## 1
Amino acid sequence: MELRQLRYFVKVAEYGSMGRAAADLGVVTSALSQQISRLESELSTRLLIRTSSGVVPTDAGLAFLRQAQLALRHADGAARAAKASRLSGEVNVGLPATTASVLAVPFMQAMRDRYPEVRVHLIESLSGYLTAMLNSRQLDLAVVFRTETARRWSTLPLIEERLFLIAPQDMPGLPPEGPVRLKDIAKLPLLMPSASHGLRLQFEASCARLRIEPNLAAEIDGLDVLMDLVRSGFGATIQPGAATVRLRGEALAVRQITDRHLRRSNLLASVSDDELSPAALAARVLLAQTVETLVRDGAWPGATLHKS
């Protein structure tokens, strides 16, 4: 028995006419009649009698009508309660620029589809700044790369990212196509973020481990400007795979760096669970699910899901 059949029966009983009920419901008369017949077959009793002037309920139909009307009222009330209690509120989410390149749009789409009443304030910034904003409670959750300064955070490892060399195709000294090692590209003029950036610290630590003196041409703390300078031939850069999403088929050379220690972990950090609103808790779960979907679908270059 379906709610649709109950609605059809109640409407026919109220109008006393199959044709008028069908017109009100926006269905053809034959389809309405078929559903009423199925309902009668399921109940093993006649609910309506057809007369020259229309249809009238049988005694069983009158008894069923009262209960059907009550059931529909309860169903409509349940639907109204569900809509009234739909998750609402706001959540402040921080994403580093490279991560935002691949994650921001799918996450915002998922939030709009799943929780349309939740307002998202999305902030793109350096991981270090996002860390400070989490500690000062300006953010509810953020994707970060380090947690040494965490204060009562909840953290969830998300992915490991391989790093890539991105350079002009005609750059002198550019290695041939295929994977490269850090020692093969360290002498290229490199455009890198400043020392406050986690990627820069990781890069320098790897160079120190290999006893390499990199050729640092300039420090750029904005991803868009940095990539504009690479396009203009000022130098090459080292970025995670997410940054390559913004290239959109541009004629730049992209080489995956194979050094094992030159990878970046993305962690989902939030203030403690007891401080998160229901909207923020829901957003945290959906963000993690969106990351997993992107990686499994191959939409996050160089990323693998964390083993946990």
## 2
Amino acid sequence: MATDSLWRRLRGWLKPDAQAAGTRGAMHTGAASSRVTASLRSLLDDPTIPDAIRSELAGDFRRIEAMLERLERGELHVAVFGRVSVGKSALGNALLGRERFAVGVLHGTTTTAQQAVLDEANQDGLVLIDTPGINELDGEARERLAFDVAEVSDLVVFVADGDLTRDELDAIHTLAATQRPLLLALNKADRYGADDIAALLERLRERTAGLLRAEDVIAVAARPAAAHAMPADTHAPEQAPLPDVAALRERLLAIARREGKTLSALNAGLYAGRLTDQVSARIARSRRELASRVIRQYCLAKGVAVALNPIPIADLLAAAGLDAAMVVQLSRVYGLPLTRSESGRLVAVISAQLAALMGAIWGVQLVASALKGVSTGLSVVVTAAAQGALGWYATVLIGRAAERYLVAGKSWGEQGAKRAVADIVASLDRDSILREARDEILRRLKSR
């Protein structure tokens, strides 16, 4: 399932018609969320996913389970990003109204993602996630962690403390590509005058045009600098101003109230779509590997059988039976089982195309088959090995062509069997296959 296609379908499920409002819109979103939940459960419980692949992607499946729990609790997860020391953790604490995230003067205080439910927003299920700085010195691992968190979050707040650097703008572009709604918080606004703040906000809106809405660029002061006492009262303690994050908090709560469930369901579906793509790719790879083993087994069986059969022409008839049996096995590998008669007809179609393309090779094989009955001594072994190698090569071609037919859902495609078989012949190195086959067959003949 392509992610873009899934995204469009989920948008259709989750966004009510423009004319729908109130209860009707809520019912639409609720039904769509239920549909997404059912899709996630279906992915988790899919019996066709092999255990090995499920184990390989265990972390991803655990994320899907966590997303299901999140949907059931009605939570909206918000990831906070930014450079080191722009005040991400302080902003999280200010939004929470308590010291939940570690804040320090050294770079890199936040080394792992942390999260906490906003006290003021329990009824809306808003969950804040603090992340490491995107420009840590050992940044690759921590940056990857940050983007992993973004992938399973519903909304992103990017924190800056001035005009954007090149790295910050690149990160915003990357985050926007994840299709998450983005807010930009200009932190440490207490350091600027009113005119400077207005100019900075305008500059940030210009530089992020097309990525963020203008109203989503908001000035905040998560940890304002303490104001010094008046000179006449030199013994008075420094005053600690209250954080100024009300505008950002209200924007987050408004989004949570208006479309929190929609965002959670949409992003869970997007993640499930990517996981489905990964599962499909790994299943395809596993099937290709198994198909290669099946083809090689039949190549060996056919090559040795042809080489050992002393009766001219009869060895070729026996080889045709092995090819049909191989195609039956391949059809089971790809979950599209064929009967023996169906596989025989498929082998006949492929063989006819091979004969048209490579008549000279099959002529050599027929001559070798006839000569084998009258040759003696070492020449018999050499002739048998050569003929067996040709049988091996023919089985490779038939197996690969049958595999292509099965991968396409029992179809040769628009260009038909002739082009498909020709492409297979062109893609294989005949000389190396024949050399490998002859060496293997000779080794087995001499060991008998």
